[in-house]
Design a protein that fits this description.
single chain, 19% strand, alpha/beta, 4 helices, 163 residues
């Protein structure tokens, strides 16, 4: 039996260590901002998985200076599952959740190749309309001149994504 380690954050000290599991090149990076044990002191585990391809999941996080660092250390990222929802009212949520435009900026900073929109449309938790996040994401992608065909991906429940 293989044992896997997941760093869920450390309540005693900032969880910005890099951990390696005991299978290949699996890595967990816990950089980010969330309100876990006090404002902006812990994070709900973002991670990078490295192998033949690189996958990045930032977890629940606000926008921060750690995105370029992740891009420098692990980029280019083949697939980034970026949260785009649960961002309104902005004055209350900004430090804890990305909006679609910030998600695209973070994607650029981690040197992402393929974007998968997550963290939207499942629960009515905040003030934005449920279908607003993907519309804002695609509008900002077009504004930035990014190809939305296969590069910026919004999938519905039950859909799959080849990467």
């Amino acid at each position: 039996d293989r044992k896997y380690r997941f760093n869920r954050g450390d309540r005693k000290r900032r969880s910005d260590r890099l951990n390696r599991g005991n299978w290949g090149n699996w890595r967990c990076r816990s950089d980010g901002l969330y309100w876990g044990d006090g404002l902006n002191r812990s994070h709900w585990c973002g991670w990078v998985v490295e192998g033949k391809r690189t996958f990045y999941y930032p977890g629940d996080t606000g926008f921060g200076s750690f995105f370029p660092q992740i891009g420098e250390k692990f980029g280019p990222i083949d697939l980034a599952a970026m949260p785009i929802g649960c961002y309104s009212p902005r004055e209350l949520i900004k430090a804890h959740h990305l909006n679609p435009e910030e998600a695209l900026e973070a994607f650029a900073q981690v040197r992402g190749r393929k974007f998968l929109a997550i963290h939207w449309g499942a629960f009515d938790m905040t003030d934005e309309p449920w279908d607003e996040p993907p519309a804002r994401l695609m509008a900002d992608a077009v504004r930035r001149g990014l190809s939305t065909e296969g590069h910026i991906n919004v999938i519905r429940i039950g859909d799959t994504l080849d990467w």
